[in-house]
Amino acid sequence: MSASGGTKAIVAALAANLAIAVSKFVAFAFSGSSSMLAEGVHSLADSGNQALLLVGGKRAKREATPQHPFGYGRERYIYAFLVSIILFSVGGMFALYEGYEKIKHPHEIEHWYWPVGVLVFAIIAETFSFRTAIKESNGLRGNLSWKEFVRRAKAPELPVVLLEDLGALVGLILALCGVGLALLTGDGVWDGIGTVCIGVLLVLIAVVLAIETKSLLLGESAGTEETEKIAAAVADGDTVTGLIHMRTLHLGPEELLVAAKIAVRHDNTATEIARAIDAAEDRIREAVPIARVIYLEPDIYSAAEAAKGPDREATPGGPAPTAGH
Fold first, then answer.
1. Are 284 and 291 in contact (CB under 8 A)?
2. Are 91 and 202 in contact (CB under 8 A)?
3. Is 187 exposed, middle or buried (0-12, 13-18, 19+ CB in 10 A)?
4. pTM
5. What are the φ and ψ backbone dihedral angles of 263, each rounded to 5 degrees?
6. CA 109 – CA 106 distance, rounded (Å)
7. Half-sphere CA count of 265, side-chain side, radius 13 A
8. pLDDT per residue as tens digits for the range 82-133
């Protein structure tokens, strides 16, 4: 992901949410609307989330150390996971509690023009933020659907901002409906129902974010396109005759580890194999620039072993692969 693109979307969302949070708390103070209070906490939580994403992006740029030889790229995943926890606990659970209390102890909304005016302003501001996130994401998602983009993106910032902004817009509409129905009927219970709906929405979005960022934290492989490019770049048709098996792992959104066993001829000298490995690494980095860490192990290709199919036990923590496989 373009770091500048992600940062632009985060900053736009942060500016919008800070302005919206202040206006919502002012509206709550004058009207007593629980929807306004829940939405104010929601916007405040979103602002904290965007600050976390900015901090994670900055910390991920630190140089590798002996204790962390592969660098700190995954810090972006950690901070994105923290976002999902904050959205769930601070935003969703608070809204559910406040909605329950308002349904249990309803009261009429005072000075209706405050919450209605703030909600209209918030919808306009969130639309601007959401539009910025969509624009930055379109340059990266290609032919992927929005669902596929959120699920497959290796950089967490834009999917997080997209889901937050979408949730904010839907939440504002729910709040407007709750406040509107409370004003039309004179029954404050509708305000509480709108608040509960906002809480349910935030919890669902937080769960989706947690699932996706958990997968990134565990370690995801390269995408299909990148894997095919790496496989095509390995062999030179001379010393390196083919790819026996390969593992890839994202050390961060823009850094990929490639470990592969490559087939070489039985009569090649050590010097020839070493030069072929260096050349293969250059070809891989040219084909997939984010392939920063590459480990290639030469082996003698065995047609008999290859005919048995891939060794599914040749995974980290499992039995060592059979020689020549």
1. yes
2. yes
3. middle
4. 0.72
5. -90, 130
6. 9
7. 11
8. 888 887 777 788 888 888 888 888 877 777 788 888 888 888 888 888 888 8
